Every structure is written in C-alpha cells, then in structure tokens.
C-alpha cells in the first residue's frame, strides 16, 4: 500500500524522483499529490498564445503551421524555425540542433504540446529549444490516452520538467495508490458536505467535469485552512499556558500623573483599548495582542500608557523598532509626551518620574555602556531600541512588557529572543503594533494567534490630508506647480518631504523584469541636486536614506524636526513613525513604483499638526491604465482599511503566511484570502474546538499528519515563534 509520506524514488524511479526533487522540491507522495494543476485546458481547445508573458515558463497546445530550416550565420549547422498557431495568433519555436528527438515529426498539420520559457527576438515572441510532445505520436500511447480526457491538467512547471512529465508521474502514483486514511474526522466531513481526501486528490488531478474540480478544490481548501488554524490554535493554547508576572494598575502612580498632564482627551477607541490592555497587563498569563490602526490614530499613546502601568508595577517596558531612525524617533517622541515625567535622576524631577533610554547598534562604547547599566539596574523604566536590544549581553532588571512596532519588518527569531529576556519560565506581555490596516482574512490567518484590536478614530485636531495625482505624461506643467506648492508652504513656515523609490549611487538601477523600455526609478541622489539647482533653489534641502551613517541620519532628522531643514528628500525610511507636525506637503516621485498601503503610510507623515496636509502622487504612467486607476483610488480615500483590501485584491495574496519573514515557501496553494473568508472562519472555529480537547492532536493522528504536510517543520517553527 502506498502511503502519503512514502518517498517518490521507489515508485517513479531515481531519474524522475530526482527531477521532481531538484526542480520543484517534491519528495514524497503527499508533496506530488498536493502539487495541484494551475489550470485545465479543454481537449481540442487551443491555449491562448496571446496571453503569454515574457520570461514565463509556459505550455501551449498548438498546431504546426510552417517549418523553415536555414544555415546559421555565426556557427556551423542548421537552425529550424517552427511556426505554431492556436488559431488566432502565431508563435515561433526555434531549434539550433538537428539531433533533437522527433524534430523531424514537426510538420505542418501536426498538433502537440510545446513547453519552454517565453522570450523575444527581433520583436517576435518565441520559445527557444522548447520541449514538445506530439499528440499523434505512435510511441506515446499513454500520453495520447491522457489527453483523450476532456480536461487536461496544466501544472506549474520548470525548465526540464514540463507539465506532461508531471502529469505522467501523478498518474503513475495514483495508479499504485490503494487508498488513504482521511485525516478529517467523519463528523466534520458530513457537517460541511466535503469530499473524502482520496476522491478530492483524484479529481483535482484527473477531473471529468468542472463541477468535480470545484468540489475537489473546496475539500482541499479546507485541508489548508484547518491546518493553519490548528497550528495557530495550538500556539494560542501554548501561549495562554505560560505564566506572566502581573502588572496591575496602581492609583496615584506614573500613569495617573501622565493622564493628568494630557492636554487633550483620549478618543473613545484609545480609552476602550487602554482598558483592555490594563486588564491583560494585570493578568497572570501573557498578553499577545495586535494593535492595528490608521496612520496618526494614536497607537503610540495607547502603548505608552500600557508601558507606564508596567513601570508603576516595578517592571520595565521595551519598545522594539525596525530601524535606528524609527527607534530614535520613538525615544524622542516618548520623552516629549512624558515631559518631566521622563527625567528620573535629574534635579527637580517628579517623584514618580522614570527614564527613557535608547539603545542602538551605532552608539559609541561609552553611550552603550551607560545605556546597558541603566537597563540592567532598572533605572530605565522604558527602553527603546532596534535588534541591539536582544543581544545576549543586554540584561534587563525585570522586563514585563514588550511593544513591537511594525511587526512585518522584524524577523521571527528577533522577537522570540526578546521574549526570553523576562526570566526563566516567565513571558513578558507582548503588544504588536502596525499602521498597515489588515483585512479580516489576513488577521485571522497570519495573525490568528493574536487577539486583534483596531483604532479607526483619529484624534481631534488632526488636520485633513488632500491627495492628488500629478500625471506628468499628459500634464507636465503640473509638476512645476508641485514645486511651487512646496515653496508656498515653506514661505508659510511649514516643511515638505520629497520621496523617491531609490537611493542611487551604486544601487542596481535596472527595473524589475528587465524591461528596457521602462526607465530606472528616480533616485534621491539624482533628484536632490536637480531640485537644489532648480525649482527649490535657495531652500534648505537635505537627504535621508537607509545607507547613511546612523549619526548622519539622526542629525538630519533632528534638523528637520527643528525646522533647520525645510525640505527632506528621502526614501521610504520615513514611511513609519516619523513625526514632524510642521511638515504639511509631500511629493512622491514615481508613485506608481510603490504599493497602495505604502503610499498610504507615506502620506500619513503630513497633516500631523494644526495645518492641513497635501500629498502629490507624481507619475508618468498613461491615463486609463490600471496603475493610474490604483493611484487615483489612493488619492480618493483616506480609509486605510479600504485601501488595504484593495491592495490585497491587486497583489493577490501571495504567500499567506509571510514567507519574507521566515524564508520558507508556504504550503498553502488553494486557500485564497480574497475568496475564502467563510472557509477560514469555519476552520478557525473547528480548530479551536479540537485543540481545546486535544492540544497535541494525540487523538487525531490524521490531523497531526495533515498539519505536518501543509505547514512544514520550518513553517510550524515560524508560527511558534512569531
């Protein structure tokens, strides 16, 4: 009996098994059977050649229309060009050798499958040395039988491993398969009217109708949704079981003193979430909460009030930022908000005051030594830093609360290491903040182990931000007007940002995809001198980017905050956290090179004071294109949650679990964050029920095996640490 975790070698032979392992990272029966077709071609219906994209590995079903052989100019031998057609458009196939098996059978009228990488020569789309299989080839009876079916599966393929080779391997494995024990409980299958796994896997690979494919996909989506929700439920259960030292609110302490000094009222959302944090910080199990909110909604204030509650309880709080610029900005912002309450140890400091200490990798030895002493002794109630905070030699007196800003920018291991700073057997409370609003399905799937709070209400006094697209392809004069607007704002005492997608200098200027028709993105180092010598001549203009020495970056930000710099030409290093209320206008160059959420984040750097904000999205993209429509959508709404959903729809979901953080490709292939909200919700409820009764899945070995297949060891480790 062939089992789902059997190796492919004994079943397919070493050559085929090695090809699948090397080309597609498929090693077991389960790996192969969960390598699903990406589409299905109908027998007799030709694949659209018009839809081919450059550099894509494709397979086309086409008829040979013309064959030409001619001597090659640069070397000896004959080149063969075969023109095939799908009935509406031709495609050129080029062969530079006559020794290719069955090349002589490529004659007008022959029909076949042709697989290769799409290229272009002399403005003609072509496949060079494609692999091919003729459908009337007498030596390929099995292949002909396979294609006699109405629906032909087309698999994600790589060079040297065309879709028909994968299909042949799948059929061979299914032919030797004696059945499988279904991992899903019978009652769940009946409750949701799902196919059994064996039927679903057979129908997804060898379908007889579109309805069969739909039913198979529905079952396989359930496998993926339930697997990830089981992993998250296990993690929630594990986190809740760990002890944490409570930090109950203390009357008359630092938090009360801070609240009394606030010059404004908290928003309803800030008050409500503050009460939730206060209760969870006072608990004996670690808080694990995600705080998402609009740009400028006051997340840092909410986090600070939680940190002050922890300091009142005699413990320390740490804020982890992804960059030194943001860490330094947070430290300054916290000190500004606290005022004299951040002056502990200084003459005349209030009795309840604490100290805010910054620790980054670029500090000199003396600064680091003093900061480390303040942290280890407990003198520093609040510690702000980058990854330098989690180095082994940094020791906390008693860490009770960790605030992680912009979670998606931090590696999993870094966050896990910081958790370990609270002492043996005890976990600190953790609050994760993000200014990128998260669609509901993403929150349930990526952050499903965290409780989620959202701040949607902006504080009173926040000024409106007006956004406009500057389409310089049609209206070049509008760019001149943009520079005039900056001069007008500076003349009124305000400041401006100019954002570019690239730093410049030795950076790779080639556009992605190698499209030579598109110019390189604009760079800070190129734009700044042009502005200084041209439209912004006479203004105090400086640059800021991630490759500058940390002390230079900090000096520029301090100068900008003090209005010694009037215009800051920067990369996205200013995207999050940077708070200069006097900055009122932002010009984003090549705005089409940024994502929707990124544009929203950048825009949030202006309009943070009493004066209205203006954001100008500059682009050369032609009117009427989908890209220009996307930019207009950003200009038309300030609702970050609406934009986040639109961003998801534009980008599709990619790797649901965030491969960028773990470096591991996701095992999820069927589940869609856009279309499968109902499945995700149902799977979440089922996972919670199962894990509540059987946390280690000892009574559900099938579910444990399925979880290992879909969420592999590395991915499970990611979920455990995130």
UniProtKB/TrEMBL annotation:
* Gene Ontology terms for molecular function: DNA helicase activity; hydrolase activity
EC number(s) given by UniProt: 5.6.2.4
Q: Which SUPFAM superfamilies match?
A: Nucleic acid-binding proteins, P-loop containing nucleoside triphosphate hydrolases
The family database entries (Pfam families) matched by this protein are listed as: DEAD (PF00270), Helicase_C (PF00271), RecG_dom3_C (PF19833), RecG_wedge (PF17191)
Which keywords describe this protein according to UniProt?
ATP-binding, DNA damage, DNA recombination, DNA repair, DNA-binding, Helicase, Hydrolase, Isomerase, Nucleotide-binding
Q: Any idea where the Helicase C-terminal domain is? A: 478-649
SMART domains (alphabetical): DEXDc (SM00487), HELICc (SM00490)
InterPro entries reported for this sequence: ATP-dep_DNA_helicase_RecG, DEAD/DEAH_box_helicase_dom, Helicase_ATP-bd, Helicase_C-like, NA-bd_OB-fold, P-loop_NTPase, RecG/Mfd, RecG_dom3_C
Coiled-coil intervals, chain numbering: none
Catalytic activity as recorded in UniProt: ATP + H2O = ADP + phosphate + H(+); Couples ATP hydrolysis with the unwinding of duplex DNA by translocating in the 3'-5' direction
Domain Helicase ATP-binding as annotated: residue spans: 280-455
Of which family is this protein a member?
Answer: Belongs to the helicase family. RecG subfamily.
Role according to the record: Plays a critical role in recombination and DNA repair. Helps process Holliday junction intermediates to mature products by catalyzing branch migration. Has replication fork regression activity, unwinds stalled or blocked replication forks to make a HJ that can be resolved. Has a DNA unwinding activity characteristic of a DNA helicase with 3'-5' polarity.
**Protein name, per record:** ATP-dependent DNA helicase RecG
Q: Upper taxonomic classification of the species?
A: Bacteria, Bacillati, Actinomycetota, Actinomycetes, Pseudonocardiales
């Amino acid at each position: 009996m062939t089992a789902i975790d059997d190796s492919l070698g004994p079943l397919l032979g070493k050559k085929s098994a090695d090809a699948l392992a090397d080309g597609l990272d498929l090693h077991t029966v389960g790996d192969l059977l969960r390598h699903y077709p990406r589409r299905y071609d109908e027998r007799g219906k030709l694949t659209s050649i018009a839809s081919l994209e450059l550099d894509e590995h494709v397979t086309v079903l086409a008829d040979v229309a013309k064959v030409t052989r001619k001597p090659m100019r640069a070397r000896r031998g004959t080149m063969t060009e075969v023109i095939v057609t799908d009935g509406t458009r031709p495609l050129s196939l080029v062969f530079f050798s006559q020794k290719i098996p069955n090349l002589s059978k490529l004659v007008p009228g022959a029909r076949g499958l042709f697989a290769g990488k799409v290229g272009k020569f002399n403005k003609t789309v072509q496949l060079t040395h494609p692999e091919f299989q003729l459908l009337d080839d007498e030596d390929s009876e099995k292949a002909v039988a396979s294609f006699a079916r109405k629906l032909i599966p087309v698999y994600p393929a790589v060079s040297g491993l065309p879709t028909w080779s994968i299909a042949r391997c799948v059929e061979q494995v299914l032919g030797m398969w004696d059945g499988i024990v279904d991992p899903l409980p019978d009652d769940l299958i009946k409750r949701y009217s799902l196919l059994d796994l064996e039927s679903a896997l057979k129908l997804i690979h060898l379908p007889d109708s579109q309805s069969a494919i739909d039913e198979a996909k529905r079952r396989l989506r359930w496998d993926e949704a339930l697997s990830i929700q089981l992993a998250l439920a296990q993690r929630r259960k594990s986190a809740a079981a760990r002890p944490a030292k409570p930090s109950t609110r203390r009357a008359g302490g630092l938090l009360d003193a801070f609240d009394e000094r606030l010059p404004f009222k908290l928003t309803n959302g800030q008050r409500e979430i503050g009460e939730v944090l206060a209760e969870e910080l006072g608990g004996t199990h670690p808080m694990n909460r995600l705080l998402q909110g609009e740009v400028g909604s006051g997340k840092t204030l909410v986090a600070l009030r939680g940190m002050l509650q922890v300091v009142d309880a005699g413990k320390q709080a740490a804020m982890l930022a992804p960059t030194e610029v943001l860490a330094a900005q947070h430290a300054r912002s916290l000190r500004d908000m606290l005022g004299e309450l951040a002056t502990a140890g200084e003459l005349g400091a209030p009795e309840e005051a604490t100290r805010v200490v910054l620790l980054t990798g670029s500090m000199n030895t003396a600064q680091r030594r003093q900061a480390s002493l303040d942290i280890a002794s407990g003198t520093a109630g609040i510690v702000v830093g980058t990854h330098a905070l989690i180095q082994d030699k940094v020791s906390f007196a008693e860490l009770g609360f960790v605030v992680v800003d912009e979670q998606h920018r931090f590696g999993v291991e870094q966050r896990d290491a910081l958790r370990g700073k609270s002492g043996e057997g005890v976990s600190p409370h953790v609050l994760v903040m993000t200014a990128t609003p998260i669609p509901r399905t993403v929150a349930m799937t990526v952050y499903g182990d965290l409780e989620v709070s959202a701040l949607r209400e902006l504080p009173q006094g926040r000024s409106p931000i007006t956004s406009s697209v500057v389409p310089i392809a049609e209206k070049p004069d509008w760019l001149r007007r943009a520079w005039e607007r900056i001069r007008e704002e500076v003349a009124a005492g305000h400041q401006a940002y100019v954002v570019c997608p690239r730093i410049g200098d030795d950076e790779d200027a080639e556009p992605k995809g190698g499209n030579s028709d598109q110019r390189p993105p604009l760079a800070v180092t190129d734009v700044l001198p042009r502005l200084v010598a041209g439209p912004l001549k006479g203004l105090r203009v400086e640059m800021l980017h991630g490759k500058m020495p940390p002390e230079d970056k900090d000096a520029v930000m301090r100068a900008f905050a003090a209005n010694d710099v009037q215009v800051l030409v920067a990369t996205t290093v200013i995207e999050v956290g940077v708070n200069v209320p006097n900055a009122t206008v932002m010009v984003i160059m090549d705005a089409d090179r940024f994502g929707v959420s990124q544009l929203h984040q950048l825009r949030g750097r202006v309009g943070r004071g009493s004066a209205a904000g203006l954001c100008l999205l500059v682009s050369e993209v032609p009117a009427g294109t989908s890209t220009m429509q996307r930019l207009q959508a950003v200009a038309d709404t300030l609702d970050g949650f609406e934009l986040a959903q639109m961003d998801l729809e534009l980008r599709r979901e990619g790797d649901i679990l965030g491969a960028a953080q773990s470096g591991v490709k996701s095992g999820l292939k069927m589940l869609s964050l856009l279309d499968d909200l109902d499945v995700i919700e149902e799977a979440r409820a089922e996972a919670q029920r199962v894990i509540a009764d059987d946390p280690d899945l000892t009574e559900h070995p099938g579910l444990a095996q399925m979880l290992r297949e879909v969420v592999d060891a590395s991915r499970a480790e990611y979920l455990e640490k995130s």
